[in-house]
Amino acid sequence: MDTRELLNLVKEGKISVEEAERELKDLPYKDLGYAKLDIHRKLRSGFPETVFCQGKPDAYLIQIFKTLYEKNGQVLGTRASAEQYELVKTVLPEITYDPISRILKIEEENKEKEGCIVVCTGGTADIPVAEEAAQTAEFFGAQVDRIYDVGVAGIHRLLSQRHRLEKANCIIAAAGMEGALGTVVAGLVENPVIAVPTSVGYGANFHGLSALLTMINSCANGISVVNIDNGYGAGYLGTQINRLAVRKK
Prior knowledge:
The chain has a five-stranded parallel sheet.
């Protein structure tokens, strides 16, 4: 539970001061020795801490997921493997796994989603990164509209979706190869575009470096660029922009 919820429970007499004190001992973080979990993060930034699963030892991953779920009532992990899913499932049976985005999560039921973020891709091969962005944004409470396979090689496909692009508070554009999608999208809309270079492409793509350089050298205005294949970072930033737009309305 967060601090406000805890204080209200004390005020209403539903938990004792001693119980509240035990909960507060974990603020600002829960020290597991090998990890210091930022239990206070949602209070500071509006979003709870998430888990980058890749490379974490099995025993550490299980305890991190278990602790964050107990503290926040939900938990999101990125870059998880199918093996890690089976492992975490032994202690958290309600955990779900998407093999495309590689997201491992337990989400609050009946979560209200607000605003609009469009997530688009240059090609079908960019969808895993785009889905990491889309599902991250949805986990944090944003409404997401997906427009996939609308790259510049057939630009009429993108132009036919312009009405959907214009409704978005921000747009996430994931593309590999030369990475021109973000520039084209930014030239069509008035709201911010988050460009995500992907490692999709042939040799001179340099595992996404060519797309990254194109995006950071874009001649269009209103583009921010995240790291190669960083769908999570794009989804997080998109949610922040979307949240500000919703508040303004």
